[in-house]
Give the backbone structure.
Amino acid sequence: MQYLVSVIDDKSNPGSTDRQPAISAFNERLVAEGYWVFAGGLADTDAATVIDNRGEQAVFSDGPFLESKEYLAGVWVWEAPDLDVALKLAAEASKVCDRKIEVRPFQ
Amino acid sequence: MSDVEEAITRAHHEDWARVVAALTRRFGDLDIAEEAAAEAFATAVQRWPADGVPPNPGAWLTTTANRKAIDRIRRENKRDDKHKEAQMVYDGVPPEPLGAIDDDRLRLIFTCCHPALAMETRVALTLRMVGGLTVPEIARAFLVRETALERRITRAKAKIKAARIPYRVPSAEDLPTRVSGVLAVLYLVFNEGYLATGPDTDPLRPDLTAEAIRLTRLIRALLPDDGEVTGLLALMLLTEARRTARVSAGGELVTLIEQDRGAWDAALIAEGHRLVRERLAAAAAGVAPGRYQILAAINAVHTSARDMRDTDWSQVLALYDQLVRLDPSPIIALNRAIAVAELDGPQVALAAVDRLQDKLAGYHAYHATRADLLRRLGQSQQSRAAYDKAIELAGNTAETAYLTRRRDQLR
């Protein structure tokens, strides 16, 4: 079972910025234990562009699809046997990143 | 009630959870298990009056439910491999904790009370899947619309499937937290029955307290060595024992101090005391008691006093001190202050209560406690204001009636 694991940051109360070494160590463990599928940190939401080509021509808009205080700062994809395993890892991930984590299963 | 009706009611109490749990294991799907169990009981209602009650009702119901489930899977033309893919995670490993009974019902309970589900969802799912209450019954109990409740249960079943919430007894390491999550669900059901909220509901809901006690008994049978399970059962029994004395004929709440102690249920008290003694022995052997055990012990002190004046308040206070160390919540501190009032007088207690204002200003019991202490101190005007605030915030009809009388008796 694969889970999308989102790291959520808060613009008005951001998590600490010195987490990279701890995150790298955690990633190595995810790989060693067979949970790691993919991981990536994201650039600021200001760098996002939304494209809507459902009409006559593509419309580009500057910025994220949703302006909010909380935003997606990075993602993982994990392979885990069930939600209990994913939640346990997510609890560790939240500590490691100093940020909130959302766990959502793929279909 | 006829013999057959009685047999069906008994089978429903004893076997509903067993049938749902066994089918969930076999088919890996709560939805199929729930529907097939309901159909099997409906078939029993149709057939038993004519055919007679089968010698082993539980086995009959399980077999019938199994057949219904297979029919449904065939009807929906689910291919076997596709169905297997969607099955819940079940590892068949017997539960780790010593003394736990390997029973599918335990897996069912832990799945329904999973921490990834919202509290209201856990309550609804537990009452439906484990308790066997119907959707209309649960909706009535919690004053929600049937359609809303049905949606909530449907969404929960979909989440369990989509997110792969496992059908499993948690590992020994996670067990204490997960058991306390299950107990929180049962205590919530009990409390809603004991002090029902809402202007349109009866102040006491014995159907809910009885169901909470029944389910807690079941969990105690499955986890006999868990002290908190025993503690919660004792707490419920000692509280339930006072139920009939708690509301007057006029529909008014009667406080512990004013209750007719002769109206308390002696059998429930005896059973509750026996359980508390069991936990005291464990505590003496070095097992630190959790909050339900301490709350049960406090209730044991109250129910040991034949007259309010015989209450061992210093013992009550010592137990509250122990509880505060474990759970520093302001509600515990408020209840502790009530014991302080009996030992050190209302003035000392009022000072302790006033310190809780920031945290409890929106809680009716805070204002009711202050009102009572101010009344005892002869500060009528302030007492009246506190009663007004308590009445405004109280949700229970019997409590509102009591507070109103008390306020109107102020001079």
